[in-house]
Write a structure and sequence with these properties.
Layout (H helix, E strand, L loop, with lengths): L17 E8 L6 H10 L5 H13 L8 E6 L1 H6 L5 H7 L4 H9 L4 H7 L13 E2 L9 E2 L4 E7 L2 H17 L3 E9 L1 E2 L6 E2 L17 H4 L15 E3 L2 E16 L1 H15 L3 H9 L40 H5 L9 H5 L4 E2 L2 E3 L15 E8 L6 H9 L19 E2 L4 E2 L2 E5 L2 E5 L3 E11 L2 H5 L5
Antiparallel strand pairs: 1-5, 1-6, 2-5, 3-4, 7-8, 9-10, 10-13, 10-18, 11-13, 12-13, 14-15, 16-17
Bound molecules: protoporphyrin IX containing FE (HEM).
The site of protoporphyrin IX containing FE has 27 residues, from strand 10, helix 11, strand 13 and helix 13.
């Protein structure tokens, strides 16, 4: 694998504080989509140039800022480029038919909605599926988008200008920009670790694709993961690599989360800090509850723990978000299989908040969840459906994931509140996270982007 031909951001996060996601469709007719793609390709940051930028940034004492760009395509995007047979080619690279079904149908297809218990009625308009007259089939219902550009920078004003330039490039070629999302890293202080809207540090644990000797020699949790867990052969340039991207806009109702914590406090007599930490698996500062019953205030959150330290689920309940989505060493013989499910998270928060997160918005803020993986079905969808949404995982009766678990009541079409229990007292809880729209993308290799005509 040559890193100059792999898109950046996959092996290592881009690390910028501001992001714009530009969702677009190609111009119609002949070679126009391919011509536009190769123009956009010139903007894309490779993994090797990302490393170069990182070195310059460090050498300058973190004083330089540079633009970072990714380009992702939907299944429709490939069809519009005339690159058919994507699924068959991906399957050839040891992928499964179900993975192809997720990618091809898109996130709004009945198959994906059913698997994940997603409700289309909650989705914002631009994400709603459209009939695909554009790809020549008026009966096919699919993604409204052909592709997405991710632009990232520390200086927001510069990012805005570059975003305008790319918009103009797309529109001048006859394409259309349908939607722009803005993401921004939130911190509780300068240089502090990023937090999500409920106030917990996020983006701590990830599979390490480029592990250092220090991580490999640890005798506790081993975060390393083989490259095959994320990279797959580019279906149209088989000697190079790409990856699948799962994107979900997850709105967070901060007021509801706080109300739920308050009512659990009344029911259990436990402190609000402990209730929240038991739902998440970590305190707001990142201290894992298996390691301490109070926040330890470490600048670098601990990522060395495993759940072998808490086999009874006393310190960290089996339903806690982090335990459901990555049950580190909870599995005995199933461990190898569970490690294989891990995904590389590269999400970013969206929406404005007051300093110190003192306000409590009921909407308009949340997480632009983005995760890279080699197989949607066996990784993201498995985690969401078989772990987070399954009340009997890790063991019955565990309950669903209180942050992202969703089980549709077929009779009412709504999500039921659940009864959770801590230290013998029960309380009602419902998710304060609503899925507002999303899509499956592929991050093609750079040679494909430059020369799709060869595909
Ligand atoms: C708004 C929605 C979400 C919120 C507020 C949230 C919050 C958090 C927080 C606070 C952590 C602990 C910090 C860290 O390890 O980075 C975490 C970890 C994690 N989350 Fe989420 N998350 C959300 C959605 C999701 C979704 C949709 C998935 C996947 C289906 C997911 C998968 C993970 C994973 C794999 C970890 C790392 C667990 C570990 O290795 O210990 N999260 N999340």
């Amino acid at each position: 694998m040559q890193t100059e031909y792999l898109q950046g951001g996959i092996l290592r996060g881009h690390g910028r504080d501001h992001v714009r996601l530009l969702f677009f469709i190609f111009p119609g007719g002949g070679k126009a989509p391919k011509v536009l793609l190769s123009k956009l390709a010139r903007w894309v940051t490779s993994a090797s140039s990302q490393e170069e930028q990182r070195r310059t940034y460090r050498a300058s004492g973190n004083n330089t800022d540079s633009l970072f760009v990714n380009l992702f395509l939907t299944s429709q995007g490939y069809a519009r480029l005339g690159c058919l047979g994507f699924g068959e080619r991906v399957r050839g690279a040891a992928q499964t038919a179900r993975n192809g079904k997720f990618f091809h149908g898109g996130m709004a297809a009945a198959f994906s909605l059913d698997e994940l218990s997603d409700r289309l009625v909650d989705w914002e308009d631009p994400y709603q599926p459209v009939t695909q007259a554009r790809v020549g089939d008026p009966h096919l219902v699919g993604s409204p988008f052909d592709g997405m550009l991710l632009l990232a920078r520390d200086r927001e004003a510069d990012l805005e200008l570059e975003c305008c330039t790319l918009r103009r490039l797309i529109e001048a070629s006859g394409g259309q920009c349908l939607l722009e999302e803005a993401g921004k890293v939130m911190r509780q202080g300068p240089g502090a670790h990023p937090v999500e809207h409920f106030g917990y540090v996020d983006g701590v644990s990830n599979p390490e694709l480029l592990p250092t000797a220090a991580t490999l020699n640890r005798n506790s949790w081993d975060p390393s993961a083989p490259l095959e867990q994320v990279l797959v052969r580019d279906p149209f340039v088989p000697e190079e690599f790409g990856t699948l991207l799962v994107y979900r806009k997850l709105e967070q109702n901060v007021q509801l989360f706080r109300d739920l914590v308050a009512s659990a406090v009344t029911a259990t007599g436990l402190s609000p800090a402990l209730i929240g930490a038991q739902m998440v698996g970590r305190f707001p500062d990142g201290t894992p509850t298996v390691r301490s019953s109070i926040p330890l205030g470490k600048a670098l959150p601990d990522d060395t723990f495993t759940y072998q330290e808490d086999p009874t689920g006393t310190a960290c309940p089996f339903f806690a978000h982090t335990r459901k989505v990555n049950p580190r060493l909870d599995g005995g013989t199933a461990e190898a299989e569970r490690r294989r499910r891990r995904i590389v998270r590269r999400g970013i928060t969206y929406g404005e908040r007051e300093t110190g997160l003192t306000d409590a918005p009921t909407g308009g803020v949340g997480l632009l969840f983005m995760a890279f993986m080699a197989n949607i079905d066996e990784q993201f969808a498995f985690i969401q459906k078989r772990w987070a949404n399954d009340a009997s995982f890790l063991k019955a009766p565990t309950n669903i994931d209180p942050l992202i678990g969703q089980v549709l009541n077929l009779a009412t079409g709504a999500y039921d509140p659940r009864s959770f229990s801590l230290r013998g007292s029960s309380f009602s809880w419902q998710s304060a996270v609503t899925m507002r729209g999303g899509e499956y993308f592929f991050a093609p290799s750079i040679p494909f982007l430059h020369n799709p005509l060869a595909g």
